[in-house]
Predict the structure.
Amino acid sequence: MVARSFDENKSTTGIHPLKFSLWLIIISIIMMFAAFTSAYIVRREEGNWLEFDLPSILLINTVVIVLSSVTMQLAHNSAKSNNLQTLKLMLLLTLGLGIAFLVGQWYGWSELVHNNVYFGGSTSNPAGSFLYVLTGVHGFHIITGLIFVLIVLMSSMKYKVHSKNMLRIQLCTIYWHFLGGLWLYLYIFLRLNH
Amino acid sequence: MSSTDISINEDVHHAHEEHDHHHDQNFFEKYIFSQDHKTIGKQFLITGIFWAFVGGFLSILFRLQLGWPEATFTFLEPILGGWIENGKLNPEFYLALVTMHGTIMVFFVLTAGLSGTFFNFLIPLQIGARDMASGFMNMLSYWFFFLASVILFTSLFLETGPAAGGWTVYPPLSALPEALAGSGSGMTLWLIAMALFIVSQLLGGVNYITTVINLRTKGMSMTKMPLTIWAFFLTAILGLLAFPVLFSAALLLIFDRSFGTSFFLSDIYIGGQALAHSGGSPILFQHLFWFLGHPEVYIVIMPAFGIVSEVITTNSRKPIFGYRAMIGSLMGIALLSFVVWAHHMFVSGMNPFLGSVFMFLTLIIAVPSAVKVFNWLATLWRANIRFTSAMMFAIGFVSLFISGGLTGIILGNSSLDIQLHDTYFVVAHFHLVMGAAAFFGMFCGVYHWFPKMFGRMMDEKLGFVHFWLTFVSVYLVFMPMHYLGIAGFPRRYYTWTGFEAFNVFTDMNTFISIAAILGFSAQFIFLFNFVYSIFKGRRATANPWHANTLEWTTPVLPGHGNWPGEIPAVYRWPYDYSKPGAAEDFIPQTVPFSETQSSNLPQEKDFE
Ligand code: HEM
Ligand SMILES: [Cu+2]
């Protein structure tokens, strides 16, 4: 991999180009979900819409993901103050909470199936399918986020994450907070439109 | 799409190592998996040219059918095999041809080929950067595109044929594998190719925006940027906002196809049997598609705006007229392009009041478009025009954009569109304003920047012949289509001889097809000129067009890192052509005001 040196081309905005790129990627993810949720609203307006109760576990999952954002922030802060032990612990906790969230979502899906709300098939209704798509695509992004957390965790094991080398964990923190925020939005959206 | 972990080593390579003498790169790093923006740009260009010939060839095939509906095409059997039955083109294959022609031209040539080439090649060179923000992501962007290309190309050779539901892939044709032969594996490959294509666009787009915002050289403020960069920058933003929506739509379509959901499907009967799908809405797909689709047409044309502005001003030897108005109109167009999508759906049964709102918004786009046209014309007005090949194509672009834009205003009226929708009038409109115009922008760019890409000049005489043949045949093909369309001649019909009303158009259709064949043949002149000049062209100088922008301050063939020494700083806007009092008729951006005291304007005296 040919390395590129930025020392001459000092970033004009003072933001690291990778951080900037991450924000742009986040914008494109937002557009994806904007498309899904507006399609949801448009479709719902047309009628023939199955009304059902949201799985109750979604609320617990919401709490879990908010907690994971807290631990992620704590990990970031301990990296900044070179608390390398806490850093690893917090990253591990984030990872655990993230996985717990995914497991919780999975339970949510089984609850739906239990209530005869299916993703596809002759008895399915777009109302249910949309819920699966929203949670599923979000879950997919959570997996990418978890991989990112794992990468940061591994480099922290090698003492590569500390106050002088913050870029990685900063990017990871931004992305993770974004995924948490995205879920909050989806949850509130689903609550309001049910 | 998500968290690819891109790490950048900040400490490797000092400035003086980054150019000419780069012996340590092997062939693969240099030409195949290159991270150099110039090489990636050329990769996009060559892939784009390949696709353009494929797409063009497909259109000649269906023009044969339309121009000579009674003829037998046994001579095509060696190429098309089973798609010719008793000398007749298979009707479903005709639909597949139209679909693939549209997909290839809109996405693979005029989006990836045009943007990929010039954004990659020009952005770092014109803003004064050593490369893109992330060379690695940039390389990935090309290879995702390449993979998408391979998959789409493969689909052409499927036994059941490629996708056939139109480039807009409306369900149910695209959603039900049993709808058409091409709706099976052909459509599946189309969707996979498109998903990869979108990933490629997003990777590229993120990079372009980041680079323009963050890596400009000293002095290159946003208002000193060439209009090319402004156009590229805004196009990249459009892509970043629009393509994810297409991705969402494609994902839902995939679920409908393969997982039994019913987002877009409802109440469908096949052979008297109701399908299990219920509760979906095909109109929803149209909304999602055109929310991308309309910005997409501007993603195609805006790079051409930028290229043409640059070439017109350079070869008029005059400053561009209304630099700020040009930026403003680009922004206006970019913004408006997100709120007009439903003009493609006037006859979909939407609420007429909503139709009026979209009609109003659509017609407003004519204003910034007209601003651009007037500014180009004002730049050309009384100029000492140098008719280089690039300049001819730039002027041709303006002509085509005007002709095609005018019919846009007609189509934008929802009541007129009831008659014109899905006729050849629409085909004529968008081929002039988008197809031909964007191609002209691309040719214009290739002729103009060829010396910087390959260190040699293209042949001007061949360029001249190429231009006139192309220009004339484009008008000969598309002007008559307006008449067909007004008469109600529908698009995407395999055969029309069964309709009494359209039989009078036989001669006109034959005429159009002959003109199309002429136009397509003329492109081989370009191909020859392009390939020949890469190896045998006249050697170029570093700044053959006497232009002001930064790329012309690099060596004839810029190496890795673009400038051998320090990156030059920028002191002025890029359009100081024929400035009164100046020694020469151009002052590059790198010349400080202190060196040009005789030509400085009163307000520039402060910078001396
Ligand atoms: C004055 C500005 C323009 C207006 C008011 C306008 C209006 C329209 C309208 C109303 C339609 C829908 C016609 C129908 O399907 O019945 C249409 C189709 C189309 N326009 Fe334009 N247009 C304008 C400029 C452009 C530009 C600049 C481009 C591309 C660079 C473009 C590309 C297209 C394409 C590709 C279609 C057809 C898509 C399809 O159905 O396959 N238009 N235009
Ligand atoms: Cu449009």
Notes: Chain B touches chain A through 68 residues (CB under 8 Å). Residues 1-22 of chain B have pLDDT under 50 and may be disordered.
